[in-house]
């Protein structure tokens, strides 16, 4: 899903528009860290803290969005979101209260809110960072040296194949004997064609004058 080597990509218009949304998600995750500490979910709070720190790398650097950090944040947020989803399911499965039960204490309602919002915020932020990365990679200039080198090699191979095909066609044309006219072989026209040509020629008739003695009916 992610390349092994990725140089810095300039942020696109979509990435710049999504920057405030990403900051809002980081603020939400920071509030969830406080809530996890209050409900004594220390492991979840520490895990979420590392995700927020990784998100700050996405906002650091000379450009407004550090696109090279987006894949790593997406990976961390996705894994944390999956674990928080499992934690949320287990919590409500073993809880004595239903979702937002009016009879539940304030601490229970806070815990339910944290367990419900945390996986949603993590997965949404992961999807947003992945969308930013893909948009910058597809619409940005090509700055990956390995990809550029591979493209050059592919173009050279394609050009070499075209030259070889042209040489083969030229050699085949040189080896083929000159073709005879239509309807004629190497020894002349075929017998049926020769007979047809003779029939098509006009017949010459020679007029011979009358020779002999003329006779009439009365002469006997």
Automatic annotation (TrEMBL):
Entry keyword set: Membrane, Transmembrane, Transmembrane helix
Composition bias, Low complexity: 163-175, 193-202
Region: Disordered, residue numbers: 163-220
Keyword flag Transmembrane: yes
TM stretches of this protein: 21-39, 45-65, 72-93, 113-133
Organism domain of life: Eukaryota
Record carries keyword Membrane: yes
Protein's name according to its UniProt entry: Uncharacterized protein
